[in-house]
Amino acid sequence: MLYKTNAKSLLAISAVISWLLLLVYVLLTAESTLAGSGAPKFAFPFLRNLLTVVFIVSVFLFQRMHTETLKGIDFIGYLWNLFSKAGVAAYLSVALYLVYRVYTNYADVESTLLLHLVYQVNFGLLVLFLAKAFYIWRQLLLYHKNKFLQIAWDWFELLLGATLLLTIFNFDYTNYVFLPLLALMGFYILFLCTNMKWVAYLTFNNKSRSLVLLGAILLSCYIFIRFFHNTADRADLVIDYTDVGFLLLAMMFVGMYTLAAFLVSLFSLPTSSVFEQKSEDLLNFQRLSLSIQQGQSEAQVYDMLFESTIKASDASAGWFEIFRNSEPQVTHLLNIKEGQINSIRHLLQAYNIHNIDYINNNLGRNPGFRGLSLPWKSMAILPIKSSKHLSGVLYLLKDVEGGFDQETVNVLRTFTSQTTLTIENLRLINESLQNERYKEELKIATQVQESLIPKTFPTDSWFEISTHSVAAKEVGGDFYDFLQLSESRIAIIIGDVSGKGISAAFHMAQMKGIFHGLMQQDMAPSEFMKQANSALSRCLERTSFITSALYIIDYRMKGFMFARAGHCHTLYYNSMMDDVFYFDTDGLGLGIIRDKNYAGHIREMYYDYNPGDVMVIYTDGIVEARNSGNDEYGEDRLLYMLKQTYHLEAEDIKCAIINDLNDFTGPGNLYDDQTLLVIKFKPTQPNE
Predict the structure, then answer these.
(1) Burial 383-399 (b: 16+ CB within 10 A, else e)
(2) What is the pTM of this model?
């Protein structure tokens, strides 16, 4: 720390002295030229250029050391620091030049010495602005950096510094020898300007503020460019700093990065609220998931559910009612009166709509609702119930038609599904203290868990899928799910939670919610694993982790991409090569590493499939199943079974594997949850 303080002091002194010496040099040279005595003896280009380079290097190194002390993710703070401590230099430059113009116009005389003084002061302000902006942008550009980006930046700094040699030895950077190199540097700068991940982390309000600051910084760049461009052609100037290639490239980088950040912030502004809502939905889902671990009551969970669904749907009104002794009791209200609730409830009963999932996006077309003269045009009814128990019903109303689109409904159903599981688990934990009811409550949890696992996958002419899942205890930690991303793309996930029983099932439900929350944004498998690891790090116990694999199949591209997080290797049959093999890819379980280093442990792979190819996805309960002699079933036997059955339908392949597994282990030897998915790509593809 003391070393850095001393170094910064020396650099500041060096900058001040070199600038003063340069000013003296310029003024004496200008005065001698005016007197007609020619240039003074000490006036030779090398000394002038050396002082210029010393000043530039001193200021840039000082700002580099000063900017390295800035930490954190307060990106608006970075922009304000740049504007308040350097951007205002341009406005000081304008003020100084206006004073000079007023004086010369008032005195009706052109003062060459005063012009050189103004020019030198503006040069100092320019270098200060460029140095500050250069290293502030460096901090933001390298946010969430990787090794390649760090190397690219280091080379950029090295090459930019090397251009100072052109200034020291008085080379013309516009020479045809150096011009192509400078053009390549321009393309290099353009590449660096594409790295601005920090903008994605700005909220809507922060983006609005950043646009103002970035606009002010862009104006600073324009002011300096305009001043030095207009004064470059003056014959009475002793030195022209537009000949310094370093300053040209530095200004190019600062200006282009500022403009790029401004445009990215501007064009991402309309979608900011959407991504903020997605993040809020995910956080609310995590709060619901954590409520059971935090010992919250059912009433607190319902409070959280009502608040979360109102925000997620942007509902104009709504109410929530719970059932006590089979009678509804309203516990939460928003912008609706009890009389209106009774009118709506009676009308729903007349239409035989009782506590079911119901969406109506045009109430005005229904004569009954139109007769009630209600101000709302859309309604969603979402029951909170397991297979045997109805806990409550959530009613949401909006004053616009088509208010509940499919994406919003999916998010709301995810909330209610998680609430169902949370409520059931809360009751399970409370009632499990009474031994006589423990088994009954476990069955309820099993039914809730089973309701979260899809029983069927979408059928299509381009692939078929067959599934098998069985838990070692009443509730298990294996899971799989799917999400239709578009007409031609589907995401399939499989996972295994460490441990067994209620805790594993609870974490399985968390993972399912995270899957649906994140994949609404249609992200790549590797990015999903990174985001899921970050989300789970906040709610998994330190001793728990989840292995998972995510596949995105695209039949138009006739391929799939996938990433695995410590999960079992995918078994694959390639019909064109007539070969059966395992995909050997890297991946670390979710929750094992709970920091940014996790991103380096995930690899993504893309593979083109052929008609007739077969993919077998499974959990370790399959290959680690043991027989009475304590021998494992193993990957080799699973591979052998696929070799024997790849020509069959997916359902027949699955049945053959499961039958062979049961023959191997014998009856009753189920020690771990077992999940198996068989996907076979059909020879006939849909019309595209």
Answers:
(1) bbbbeeeebbbbbbbbe
(2) 0.51
